[in-house]
Prior knowledge:
Blueprint: E1 14-15, E2 20-21, H1 31-40, E3 55-57, E4 60-62, E5 68-71, H2 74-77, H3 86-97, H4 109-119, E6 128-133, H5 136-155, E7 161-165, H6 174-179, E8 196-199, H7 212-221, E9 229-235, E10 237-238, E11 243-244, H8 247-260, E12 263-267, E13 291-294, E14 305-310, H9 311-314, H10 330-345, H11 348-369, E15 374-380, E16 383-388, H12 398-410, E17 413-414, E18 425-428, H13 436-454
Parallel strand pairs: 5-17, 7-8, 7-9, 9-12, 12-13
Antiparallel strand pairs: 1-2, 3-4, 4-5, 6-14, 10-11, 13-14, 15-16, 16-18
Amino acid sequence: MASYNLTPAEVPTLETKYRRITTKLPVPESLPIFEKLGCSEPKSMMGQPPIVWDKAEGFLVEDRWGNRWIDWSSGVLITNAGHGRKEIRDALKEAIDKPLISSYVFVHEKRGELTEMLQALAPDPEDYQVFLLSTGSEAVENAIKLARTYAIEKHGKNKRYIVSFKNAFHGRTLGSQLAGGMDKLKTWIVGEGDTFAQVPFPDGYKNEDTSFDLFLSSLEKLDISGDEIAGIITESYQGVGPDFLPVEYAQKMQDFCKEYDIISIYDEVQAGFGRSGKMFTYEHYGVTPDLIVCGKGISSSLPLSAVIGRKKVMDLYAPGSMTSTHSASPLPVVAAVENLKIIHSENLVEKSRVLGELLKKELDRIVKKYPDRLGCLHARGLVAGIQVVKSGTKEPDAQTAQDINEKCFHKGLLMFAPVGIAGECIKIAPPLIISEEALIEGTRVLEEACDEILGG
Length: 456
Ligand code: PMP
């Protein structure tokens, strides 16, 4: 994907209750910062619209030159409870002032508070435990390891495959990328993938066959039988769409896992904590995963991830043999505790569902204006995606997606760079605390951007 233009552009100044654009963009005074980073960092870090964040609160992000954006990124689906929440900042300050800012895996009191809160979110809390880590990829890796360990201990080494889905994203480390399904990202992987296999994801647009028979026939083609599968991992929705699983498909997959004693893993790293209008997105499907992988929205702030899983799988390792240096580090933990309290007390899961209906209606109207170019809209709760395509086809149009995204950026609406295999998906994911008024204002901005880029 092309990076964003770093030559300051004249853009119309504007001021509304929420948005303010008063300078060229990128801001000329910000260029030395981009230059410094360009010299000292790999260019892989330069894929986002060129704003220098100075302050982020609620659903607003500001730079220090007077510009302010409505945020439709939530970072990258991190700040479900809003940016910079006072409750989270206060709890962090308290821990900092004690001080208790690091403890390795020695116990601190808040750790138990958090694991209990997360356990309470499991399908059957008595039967589930919680293991805290730092990043989504790390939690995915752990889930893969646990599925394998369970399979080997119970059935022997022949039960070895990890089955996942094409176009899936599970992170950028080796194991998480082996489970990922984007071939373009896997060119550095040479011979490690023998026991990882991907089958088509039943999204209904890129792959129109959403039947579970396709899952079975794909395994047959790969010459893999149920007895040989240790775990099946799927994102609860695939981020690129967002693409959800058909309920019947998810339930048949659960039956298949039960029949062959396969560990089912739902990756909720971006789908969890109210994002799609349920606490966890798998709840839309009426299934009960064996392992639930969490990250991002778990803390609305600091790096924290978790695997919530059935005891029979979680408890396979002896004391001291399944840990990580920063597991349950005090600051992310207190942030997550406050975050979960906010999600509960402000009913953010229900709010996401209700606002999501409004968002979908508005986006639907925009997509219908340009049916040739805006190929498909998927939305549930406060996550939505619009596929931008070349006229009248399903072929991704990454450049136009980026142009729309950049136009929104110039108008005070911030989204992260278009995602997807070719960068064609305009992804919409505001903090769940966004007001109805600001959400609607955002849709008007997107509509203006689409009119300017796609209109006559
Ligand atoms: N799983 C999913 C579904 C994700 O969206 C991501 C990150 N985008 C990850 C795993 C990896 O998380 P992290 O970047 O924290 O390692």
